[in-house]
Structures are given as structure tokens and as C-alpha cells.
Amino acid sequence: MLIDWFTVIAQVVNFLILVWLLKRFLYKPILGAIDAREQRIAKELADADAKKEEAKKEREEFQHKNEELDRQRAALLDKATEEVKAERRRLLDEARQAADQLSAKRQETLRNEAHSLNQAIRRRTQQEVFAIARKTLADLADANLEENMVRIFTQRLSEIEVQTKASLGAALQTAAEPALIRSAFELAEGQRTAIQKTLNEMFPAGINVRFETAPDLIGGIELSAGGQKVAWSIADYLAALEKGINELLKEKVIVKVKSQAEAANTP
Amino acid sequence: MHLSPDAIIFWQYGLFKLNATILYTWGLMCLLVIGSKLVTRKFSMELKRTRWQNLLEIIVSGIEKQIEEVGLNQPRKYLGFLGTLFLFVATASLFTIVPGYEPPTGSLSTTAALAICVFVAVPLFGIEASGLGDYFRGYLKPTFIMLPFNIISEFSRTLALAARLFGNMMSGTMILAILLTITPYLLPIAMSVLGLLTGMVQAYIFSILATVYIAAATRTRKPKPRLESGATHEA
């Protein structure tokens, strides 16, 4: 008999025990390990995916930020360039203006200097000319000349206009002090009386006259009373001449300055 | 010259006896359990693991995949039973290379025991999966006329399982023994290699047939697929 029933039963029991033992010691731990590993791998893959996603997001964000930064930098650079250009223009303008002002000032100073030099030269020349004239005339003036002067003075006095004569008369009459006759030299008695006589002829009321010597007249006679004055003197002539010359010089200077200024404005 | 290791009896007390079949089975059991215990003791859940762990993982996951491919949707539920069938038969054949070893599967008692286990396990799994009524109604399909044939098929396939494995394993050791007496040198080695191969194939066939039976039993609502018909011819 090939089948031994005791052995069959024993083998069935053996087999069932083996099933239980292997389940306990082989399948369970191995399947557990495989499951754990699979879970772990799945988790790691999910983690990796999440990290990848995150990295992608971060990269995009970074790129975005970078672009933004580039844009901002370009804008700032543009702005700075513009500002620098404007500043440069402004500084150049300022410098140009300052230079212009400086050059104008210098020109002005030069002009002023030239002008004052001219003025000084003119004044000096004028003074010299007048001093010479005055000296010459003073040298020439003597008693004879005085006599002639008195003559001319009395002639003038008698020839004055009616209106002037009236006002002079009023002044002579109302004046508290006596009328003053000034002359460069001491007048002789005859000359004094001639003048007194002329005055008396001209004005009905008696006029008190006081005589005075004034060398600054150079030559000539002057009658002054109550603010009115009738005179003939070389100093007067010289003064009139000087005044005329001064006016002429002044006009010339003004014209010159104007032409210079126009020349400076046209580059 | 024994036809079966059952005949080698070491100890007997009345009905109880300790023969080579039982002894070698215990030896294999110890080997399998201690081996598993040793390897799984230092099991790592990490990505890095030992070669032994890798080997065991490949075997177990391979069995699991095979069960799933046959058509069982929850392979883990059946892994304990079917996997142990395969591992026991495979290791029993594998150790034929050890001189003096008699494979316990070379005994008709052992193969009958395994076939009986399958014979009992198939309806149990089937009832568990689809309920008592549904399972037994499966025997009436496609018509009630098929009932006796279905019952005969249940018994005959169990018998076929036992006889096939026994025949193959027994013949392997027998051929080896006979050849050793005739040409003692090279040919037995070649036959031994062939024996290893047939042993592995038989282990595969035995467990895959059991799987197919269980798969068929757990899907009784559909017409019973006669998947085993092609496989039985192979033996």
C-alpha cells in the first residue's frame, strides 16, 4: 500500500503548522517590509513632486522678481541719467551765466576804469587849461584892465533889460544891507564914483554901496544885492566855458558807453 | 530499494510511527522557518537591504504576483496557503541534491495530504467568498445534469494532484537510483539536474493548479472555468 494514512494525517498537520509558521515568520514580515518601503517610496516621490513643484514655483517667482528688479534698475538708471543730464545742463548754464556775469563785470570794470581815467585826464587837462588861462589872464590883469572893466561893467549895467533892471531895483531898495560890489583888484576912487554914479542914474533912490576885493574873480566886477546879481568877470566866462565843455564830454561818454554795450551784446 | 520514504521507519508505537517522510518534512519545516526567522530578524524597512532579504522579497512578491495573475483579486489572503504549498514542494525537490535525502513529496502519503488540504481549502475559500448557498449552487451550473460530473471532477482532480506530484518526485529519485547502479558517473548528475528542474516545475504546477481551483471556486456565479484541463495533460 503506497498510502500510509497515519503519515497522511501527520503530513496534513505538518503542512498546516508550516502554513501558520511561514505566515508568522515569512509572509507577514516580508509583506510588511515591502508595504512600508512602497509607502515610503510613494511618500518620497510625493515629497519630491511637492518639492519640485515648490522649486518650480520659487523659480518662477525668482524669475519674476529678477525681471522686476531689472526693470526697476533700468528705470532708475534712466531716471538717474536724465537727472544727471539736467544737472549737467543746469550747471553748465550756471557756469555760463557766471562766466558771462564775470566777463560783463570785468568789461564794466574795464569800462569804468577807462572812463574814470578818461575823466581824470579830461579833468586834469581842463584844470590845466583853465589854470593856464586863469594865470595868463591874472598876469595880464592890472589897473588899466580894471579901468576898462569898470567901463564895460557900467556900460553893461546901463544896458540891462527892463525886467532885470526892475527886479534889481526892487532888490536894491528892499535890501537891508548895502549893495556889494566885488572886484579882483582894489578899485580906484574915480572908478568907485563912476559906478556909484551909474547906479544913481539908473535907480532914483540913493543906493548904499560897499566895495570889496575878491581875487578869485581873476578879473572883473560883480554887483550883488538881495540875491540879485549883475556881473562881468573872467571867472564867469571861464565857468561858462567849463560848464559847456563838461556837458559836451558827458554827452560823448554816454554815446560811447552805449555803443560799447551794444558791441558786447552781439556775439 | 524503497518505493516511498514511508517505508523507512525509525520508530513505531502502535499506530504512531516516525518514518523518513515525517522526519524529512520536519527537517524542511525547521529549515524554512529558521531560515525565514534568521533573515526576517534583521529586516530593514529602509531602501537598503541584505541580499537574503532581497531574495525572500523576490520569492514572496513573485508568488503574490502569480496568484494575482491567475485571477485572485486579493492575493494576500491566499498567499499563506498557496505560497507554503509552493515553497514546501520546491524545497523538498531542491534538497534532492543532498546525498541520502529522500524528498517527502516522493511519498504518496505526503502528496495525498497536500491534495486533501487543497480539496478542503477550495470549498472553504469558495464559501467564504460567495456564501454557502452560492458556492453549492455552482455545482448545478450550467445545468443540474452537470452535478455528478462536477463532483467527480472535484475528486478526480484531487487524485490527479496527488498522483502527479508523487509520480514525478518518486520517478526522479527512482531514475536516479536505477541510473546509479547502471552508469554510476556522469549520467546521474545530468538526471539529477533534470530532477531539480522537474521538481521546480512540479512545485509550480501544484501550487498554480491549487490557485486555479480556488479562483474558480471563488467565482461561482459565473460558469465554472475549466482552466485545469490544459494543465493536467502536461503531467
Write a compact overview of the structure shown.
The complex is a heterodimer of chains A (267) and B (235). Chain A has 267 residues and is of the alpha+beta class.
The strand count of chain A comes to: 4
User: Order of strands across the biggest sheet of chain A?
Assistant: 2-1-3-4
Rough outline of chain B: globular
Number of helices of chain A: 5
Shape descriptor of chain A reads: rod-shaped
Descriptors for this entry?
heterodimer, A: 267 residues, alpha+beta, Dihydrodipicolinate Reductase, domain 2, 2 domains, 4-stranded mixed β-sheet, 5 helices, 4 strands, rod-shaped, B: 235 residues, mainly alpha, two-stranded antiparallel sheet, disordered C terminus
Tell me about this structure.
The complex is a heterodimer of chains A (267) and B (235). Chain A is rod-shaped and about 205 Å long. In chain A, a hairpin with a 2-residue loop joins strand 3 and strand 4. Helices cover 79% and strands 8% of the residues of chain A. Chain A has a four-stranded mixed beta sheet with strand order 2-1-3-4. Chain A has five helices and four strands; from the N terminus they run αααβαβββα. Chain A folds into two domains: 1-105; 141-248, Dihydrodipicolinate Reductase, domain 2, CATH 3.30.360. The longest helix of chain A is centred in the first third of the chain and has 136 residues, at 5-140. Chain A has helices spanning 5-140, 143-159, 162-174, 189-202, 234-265; strands spanning 179-183, 209-213, 220-225, 228-233. With 235 residues, chain B is mainly alpha-helical. Chain B has one domain. In chain B, helix 3 packs antiparallel against helix 7 and helix 4 (108-130) packs parallel to helix 7 (186-217). The radius of gyration of chain B is 20 Å and the shape is globular. The two termini of chain B are 25 Å apart. The relative contact order of chain B is 0.13. Chains A and B meet through helix 1 of A and strand 2, helix 1, helix 2, helix 3 and helix 4 of B.
